[in-house]
Amino acid sequence: MKLSTKGRYAVMAMADLARMGAQGPVTLADIASRQEISLSYLEQLFAKLRRAGLVKSVRGPGGGYRLARAAGETRVSDIMIAVEEPVDVTRCQHMAKGCMETGARCITHDLWDELGRHIHLFLAGVTLEDVINQRVAGRASFASPVLEAAE
Prior knowledge:
- The chain is mainly alpha-helical and about 150 residues long.
- Helix content is about 45%, strand content about 5%.
- A two-stranded antiparallel ribbon has the order 1-2.
- The radius of gyration is 19 Å and the shape is elongated.
- The two termini are about 35 Å apart.
- The model has no long low-confidence stretch (mean pLDDT about 85).
């Protein structure tokens, strides 16, 4: 699975907005400069984020964008969904059809499908506030069955 720039850049831009937005509306040009993202690409992403209700635009002098809700209430999964970045690691195009030519699911389908669910759950458990306050590292840690068996 490879996460496209669409999802990564949307989360980067939203984290920047969350960090800098306390000072007032933030322009896309400022975000583009700080995060080294194309301004035209950000405009496309923010149109989707605005339609999803994650950001609000402020017009006029001193205008820009603000978060529509608090950083602690904005989940990373919401951002990914807003910019249409699916977290699907199976090779199946449609759930009704399997990934094999016969229409059956491949032997590892359930493995990759469950991994996709774990990724989504992880992203749903992380807010922009967590990201900007660097509270993400270590969240995926868990006791390894191999380590427990060795003890």
